[in-house]
Design goal:
Radius of gyration: 25 Å
Oligomer: single chain
Number of domains: 2
Structural class: alpha+beta
Bound molecules: zinc ion
Helix content: 10-25%
Number of strands: 7
Largest sheet: 5 strands, mixed
Strand order of the largest sheet: 2-3-4-5-6
Strand content: 25-35%
Shape: elongated
């Protein structure tokens, strides 16, 4: 979604659009979604463009502990300030202290590609480790059973006993 700077004429001018998965090159492959519904409200103040963004996406991924599928709807909001690249050089000296570094970005030329900022935000909002629930029991590292659905006896059988498999074989013989 590209917006020409001259297109921004009034305060909180709204642009709504959907980003398809194929538009998002930087989101990792392990996150699956069809689209991100985006709403941007732009306000121009001299050279600076304020972006108030909100988005909604349904993301499918896998739990890092039990490998089970996770489907979650995420709705989030963010705000950032865009400045033309030409302002970047002068900016270091007279930047307003109230704006944090993270909230400022720069654009080149006379248009803003809004999609990239939403993609960035989805990446920022995605935790590095994803679990299906806070109480996820994970998988047994001995037998591979998903402990959320099944119990196994591995813990009771003495994990560090080197004769465990031997004993099992003898049991079978008898
Ligand atoms: Zn899990
Ligand atoms: Zn087990």
């Amino acid at each position: 979604m590209k917006v020409k700077i001259t297109q921004i004429q009034k305060k909180n001018q709204k642009f709504s659009f959907a980003l398809k998965r194929s538009d998002c090159q930087r989101v990792e492959d392990r996150y699956h979604f069809d689209k991100i519904d985006c709403l941007a409200e732009l306000t121009k103040n001299h050279e600076q463009v304020q972006v108030k963004g909100s988005y909604k996406v349904v993301i499918s991924s896998f739990c890092d502990q039990c490998l089970g599928e996770i489907s979650q709807t995420r709705e989030s909001q963010f705000q950032l300030f865009l400045l033309p690249e030409s302002a970047a050089k002068n900016d270091l000296d007279d930047r307003e202290i109230t704006l944090s570094e993270l909230d400022i970005d720069y654009f080149a030329g006379l248009e803003i590609d809004l999609g990239g900022y939403f993609e960035d935000q989805v990446i920022l909002d995605t935790p590095l480790v994803q679990v299906c629930s806070e109480n996820c029991a994970g998988i047994c590292n001995q037998c591979g059973v998903n402990l959320n659905f099944k119990q196994c006896d591995c813990r009771n059988q003495g994990l560090n006993n080197p004769f465990r498999s031997l004993r099992k074989n003898t049991d079978n013989l008898i």
